[in-house]
Amino acid sequence: MRSFGKGWPRGGGEIGELLRHPAFEAVGLGPAESWPASLKHIAEMVLNSRQPKFVAWGPDLSFLYNDAYVPVFPERHPAALGRPFREVWADIWEQFSPIVASTLSGSPQLFEELRIPMRRDGRTEDTWFTFSYTPLRDDDGTIAGILCATLDVTDQVAAKRGEKLALEELRAKSEALAVVNRAGAAITVEPDVERLTQIVVDAGVTLTGAEFGAFFYNVDDGGGGSYMLYALSGVDRKNFEKFPMPRNTKVFSPTFDGEGIVRSDDILLDPRYGQSAPHFGMPKGHLPVRSYLAVPVKSRDGSVIGGLFFGHAEPGRFSQAAEASLVSLAGQSAVAIDNIRLFRAAKVEIDQRRDMEDQLRKLNEMLEVRVAAEIAERQQAEAALQQAQKMESIGKLTGGVAHDFNNLLQVISGNLQLLGKDVAENGRAKERIANALVAVERGSRLASQLLAFGRRQPLEPKVINIGRLVTGMDDMLRRALGEEIEVETVVSGGLWNTFADPVQIENALLNLAINSRDAMDGAGRLTIEVGNAFLDDSYSRTHPEVKAGQYVVLAVTDTGSGMTEAVKEQAFEPFFSTKPEGKGTGLGLSMVYGFVKQSGGHVKIYSQAGRGTTVKLYLARSFRSEDRVTAADTVPATGGTETILVAEDDEGVRTTVVEMLSDLGYYVLKAKDAQSALTVVESGAHIDLLFTDVVMPGSLKSPELARMARARLPDIAVLYTSGYTEDSIVHGGRLDPGLELLSKPYTREELARKIRHVLATRPQAGRAAADAARPNSKPAGPRHAETAGKLKLLLVEDDAFIRMDTAEILQDLGYDVIEAESGEAGADILGHTVVDIVVVDLGLPGMPGSAFAARAREALPSVGLVFATGDSDLPVANRLSGSVLLTKPFNSAALERAVKTALQQRP
C-alpha cells in the first residue's frame, strides 16, 4: 500500500479537515496519522464516498463517518467524531448491540426499512433505514471494526403507508358504490352525466309520452355548474343543449328550492321567453311547451341537486300515474347522481394513486439502481482493498527476506574481497573469487527487486519531465530489444512534470520493454506513450488506493500474446511468471508495481489473450519546475585514519565490515546494537563517524541513537546501512533529508567512497576538531613501534590461534611479547615481571579480563591497558583510566593504534 504522510487523509471534505487537525484524536486510536494502514485505507474510501457511511474501529469502536452521514444526526456532529459507538448512539444502543456483536463475530448484516426510534431535536421519532454492516479486518487479519453503508428511507416508507390507507379507503367506497349500483336501475351505473341525462329523459318520455323532456343538474363537477339537457320528439336536440336552467323562472322555484312538484296543465306566460324569435311556433312570451311537470332530484343529504322537467305541446297531458313514474325516476336519478359524484371522487383518488404509484415505482427503480450501484461499487472497492492488503502482506514478507538475504550477501561479499588480497598472486583463485562476486551482484539485484516490490527501497525522487527521459532512452531500448522489435515513442505536447526517481523510472521502463519483447517472441511492435491523464472520483471509489487528480501516464503497449484474466490477477505478485523455467525471475512487474506504489502512483494492466498488452504507470503531477539531473560526484575509494563506530546486530556482517574498515586504515569500534553503541558514545571515546545498521533489535532505534550521539558529539558524522529500511528513515518513498545511506550489499570500493564522502561533508570546524583530537593521524599503511627500545607487552588470550597470530603481529611491530592463556597465568607473570603494556581479552574463563586488568593496574600503576573483545558493552565503571577498547576481529593496523594509544594515555 502507499505511504501515508502528514497530509492524510486525502480529500474527505469537512470530516477530512477535522481528522487532519493536529488536536484531533479518536478514542482508543489516537491521532489519525498513527492509525494502522488497513484503517487508513478504508477510512479514506468512506470519507470520499457520496453515500452515507461510517466506520467503527478498535476496542472502543471509535465512530468515524463522512460528510454524507452528517444529515443523519446533525445535532450530534461534530462531537460524535472519534467517540465510542456506544456513546454516540446511546439512545438506540440496546437495539443495535446484538447487530454489532453479530458483525464483529464475522457475519455481514443487511436490513431493509428497519424502524429505528431516534432522538432528534429533543424528542424521539420513528425513522426507517436500509443499511448494511460489513466486518473489517486489521493488518493481521483480525476483525477490528465495522463498515456501514446506510440510506434514510423514512419518506419512502411514509409514502407507502399513505398510499395503503388511500387504497383501503377507495376500496371501501367502491364496495359501497357496488351495493348502490346493484340496487338501482341500469341507469345508475352510467358514469357520464350527459349519457345519464339522455337515459333519464328518454325514460321520462317513455313513461309520460311527452314530446319534450329535460334533465337539469347542478353538480360540482368542475365543468361550470348547472346544465339543461333536452330529449325532444321530432325536434332537433342540438338547438336546446345547454339551455339555461329554468331556476330563474319563478314558476319552477318550488321545485328547485326542494319544496315539491310543480305542475301546470296550461303554461303561463313569461316575458323572458320569445323576446327574439318564437319557440317551436309558440307566441311571444310563451315557454316552448303548453303543459309541464317539474320534479326535484335530491341527494342523500336532502339537498336539491337537479330536477326533471317534462313538457308537452298540448295542455293537460300528464296523468297521476305519469307523475308517480317521474317521481320514482327522480329518485333513481338522485342515486345515479350520487354515484357519479362518488365515481368522480374515486377517479380523482385513482388518478392520485396512479401518480403516487408512478412516483413510488420510479423512486424504487432509482433506489434499486442506486443500491445495486453502491453494492457493486462497494464489492469492487472491497476486492481492490483485499488485493492491496494481500500485496502489502507479500511486500512485508519479501522485504523481511531481502533484509536477511542482504546481510548474508554482505558477509559473503566482504570476505571474498578480503580473501582477494590474500590470493593476489594466484590467478586462478582470483578468477574464482571474481566469479563468486558476480553471483553476489546478481543476488544483490534480486534482493533489490524484492525491496522494490515491498516498497522498502530508498528512492531519490526529482521533479522530471518523463518525455525527455524516455526520449533519451530510445537508443538503449533499441539495443536491448533487438532489430526485430519496432519501437515507437509518442510524447504528448504540454506534458506535465512529475516527482519520481528517474533511475527507477528507467528501470521500470526497461523491465516493461523486456517483458514485451519476450511476449512478442522477439518480433513485433512496441509503443511507448507519455501523456497527461486525470483519474476522477468514480475511478477512485473503485480503486481505494488511488487519489483522484492529475497524473502523468507512461504507457507501454506490445503486440504480443496478451494475458488471461487469471494471469492479470497474479501478474504483480513476486516470482509469478508465465515464462519457461530459467527464463525469468518473475520480479520484473513486481518491481514496477512496488516502485509506482511507493511513489504514490497507480499501475494498471489492460490485456486480452492473443491481443497484446498495455501497462500504464500513473505518476502524480508536480507543479514545480524541473530539477537538473546530474551525475553523482565521484569520490576516490581511499581509506583514512579516523575513528569509526560500527553498530551492527548481525555478527557476520559486523566482523566483515570491521575488517574492511580496518584494512582501509580506520580505527574501528564496534557494537552489537544501538544501546551498546550508545554506551561507547557515552564512554567519552573519540568518534568521527557512526556507521549504523537501520534495523536492529532493542528498544533504542538507529535514528534515536544518531540523535543522541550528535547531542553528545556535535561533530560526529552518521552513515546508515541496511538491506531493508522499513519506514524509520524513509518516508513518502524517499530518504529523509540530510541522511546518508549505504545499501547492502556493498563492495569495499563503495564503502570506502561513501565513508570519505560522508566525512568530507562534515562542517569544517568539526573536521578540524576531530583531526586535533585523533591520537595518530598518520596515513594508513604498515606501522612500526616508534620506541627507543623494545617495550614489554603481556598478551592474555585464552584462544590459542588468536593468541599466536596476535603475538606474531606484535612481535613484527617491535614489541617484546609475553603470552598467557588465562587471567590466573597472567597474574603469576606479573608477580615477577614488569611490563609496559597489557593486551587482555575481556572474555577470559575463570578470572574475567576486567578483574585481571584491575590487578595489573594495582601492581603496575603506569601500565597501559588494551581490552580486546568481540563486544562493546563494557560498562564505563569497569574501564580503567587510560584504557583502550580494541574490538575483534582486528587487523595489524588497528592493533598497533590501540597499543600506541594505550601507551600515550597510561597514567
Automatic annotation (TrEMBL):
Entry-linked PROSITE patterns: HIS_KIN, PAC, RESPONSE_REGULATORY
Reaction(s) this enzyme catalyzes, per UniProt: ATP + protein L-histidine = ADP + protein N-phospho-L-histidine
TM regions (residue ranges): none
Keywords, alphabetical: Coiled coil, Kinase, Phosphoprotein, Transferase
Record domain Response regulatory: where: 643-759, 792-903
Gene3D superfamilies: 1.10.287.130, 3.30.450.40, 3.40.50.2300, Histidine kinase-like ATPase, C-terminal domain, PAS domain
UniProt cross-references to Pfam families, sorted A to Z: GAF_2 (PF13185), HATPase_c (PF02518), HisKA (PF00512), PAS_4 (PF08448), Response_reg (PF00072)
PAC domain residues: 110-165
CDD domains linked to this entry: HisKA, REC, REC_hyHK_blue-like
Ranges where the record places region Disordered: 764-784
Record-level Gene Ontology MF annotations: phosphorelay sensor kinase activity
Coiled-coil blocks: 346-391
Domain Histidine kinase: 400-623
Chain positions found as 4-aspartylphosphate: D693, D841
Bias (Low complexity): 764-780
InterPro entries assigned: CheY-like_superfamily, GAF, GAF-like_dom_sf, HATPase_C_sf, HATPase_dom, His_kinase_dom, HisK_dim/P_dom, HisK_dim/P_sf
Keyword Transferase assigned: yes
Enzyme Commission number: 2.7.13.3
Protein name: histidine kinase
